[in-house]
Amino acid sequence: MHANSNDRARITTRVTAHEHQDIEEHSIIRLGQNDMKRFVDALDNPTPISERLAVSLKQHLETRQHETGRCRSTVRWVPKPR
Questions:
Q1: What CA–CA distance (Å, rounded) separates 31 from 6?
Q2: Cβ neighbours for 82, distance < 8 A, ≥ 6 positions apart
Q3: Mean of pLDDT values over 41-56
Q4: The domain containing residue 8 runs over which residues?
Q5: Nearest 5°: phi and psi at 68?
Q6: How many Cα atoms within 13 Å fall on the side-chain side of residue 71?
C-alpha cells in the first residue's frame, strides 16, 4: 500500500506540527508571577562577581591575548578597581 501525495502532505504537516510543539515545550520557560519578578530583578540588579572570579577572568583574557597575539573576545568586561 502506497501513500498518495495528499496522504504524504497530511503526514508531513502532522509531523511538522508535533516537532514545533516539542521544540516549543523544550525551549520556552514559563514562570509564575513571583518567579518572573525575581528573574527580572536578578537581571536588573546582578550580584557582584567575587574577587576570585574577577582575577580568573582577567587571567583568562590575558592568556588568550598572549596565545593569539590579539585580544578578541565576546566577553566585554574590564574589572573595576576596588
A1: 41
A2: 51
A3: 89
A4: 1-47
A5: -100, -15
A6: 12
Q: What is the DSSP string of 20-73?
A: HHHHHHHH-----HHHHHHHHHHHHSPPPPPHHHHHHHHHHHHHHHHHHSS---
Looking at the structure, do residues 43 and 14 belong to the same domain, yes or no?
yes
Same domain, 39 and 58: no
Query: pLDDT tens, 4-47?
Result: 777 777 777 777 777 878 887 878 888 899 999 999 998 888 88
- Cell numbers representing residue 3 in the block: 501513500
- Taking the complete model, does pTM exceed 0.85, yes or no? no
Count of beta carbons in the 10 Å neighbourhood of residue 61: 16
With bands split at pLDDT 50, 70 and 90, how would you rate the model's confidence at 68?
low
